[in-house]
Every structure is written in C-alpha cells, then in structure tokens.
Description:
InterPro entries: Inositol_monoP_metal-BS, Inositol_monophosphatase-like. Mg(2+) binds at residues 78, 80-81. It comes from Rhinopithecus roxellana (Golden snub-nosed monkey). This is Lithium-sensitive myo-inositol monophosphatase A1. GO terms for molecular function: inositol monophosphate 1-phosphatase activity; metal ion binding. There is one protein chain. This protein is an alpha+beta fold. Helix content is 34%, strand content 22%. It contains three helices and five strands. The chain has helices at residues 6-19, 43-59, 83-87; strands at 31-33, 40-42, 64-65, 74-81, 94-100. The strands form two sheets. The chain has a three-stranded mixed beta sheet with strand order 3-4-5. It has a two-stranded antiparallel sheet with strand order 1-2. Strand 1 and strand 2 (40-42) form a beta hairpin. The longest helix has 17 residues, at 43-59.
Amino acid sequence: MADPWQECMDYAVTLRQSKGPSRKKRNEMKVIPKDSPVDLVTAMDQKVEEMLLSSIKEKYPSHGEKSALTNNPTWIIDPIDGTTNFVHRFPFVAVSIGFAVNIKI
Length: 105
C-alpha cells in the first residue's frame, strides 16, 4: 500500500531545492540576536521561511505549521538549520523540513 503522505514528502524535497538559501544569497546577512547573543536569526532565515510557508499554503491550504502542532497535517520548518555556521560562512548548514500527521513525525 502506498504512503498517502509521500506526495507531501516529495514536495518538501522540491521546496528545499527551489527555495532554500544559496551561497550567492549570503549578502542578506543582517544578523539579529533572537533569545540570546548566541541564538541568531538572519534576514535570510526569515525570507526562506516566508517563501517555504507561502508555497506550502498555496499547495496545501488546510495544512498548518509548527506554531500549533495538532492532529492535522503540520509542517515543521527550520529555514537555516545551522544559522551560526551560515553567518560565519561555514558550509555546514541545511534546510530542515518536517511533516507531522496526528502529532507523529
């Protein structure tokens, strides 16, 4: 039996490839301390998250995002996982996109 959520997972891979940050875009490096001086967020974090959520809402309007984990399909996004590395131009970063249904990832 095919996984009914495989389409969503395939879409997550497509999103990462088309909307994720690139090395060329690192000029958007306005860095803002989040909760502490070592917890950083960049303008690129915000831009990538905005693009990802907008694309998801367009394709799956009934799905939620991580601010409220419920039994409904929910996307969990870290637009730049490794922001400190990104800020310091280290290549060890990722776009993390998770998908949960019934509060199970």
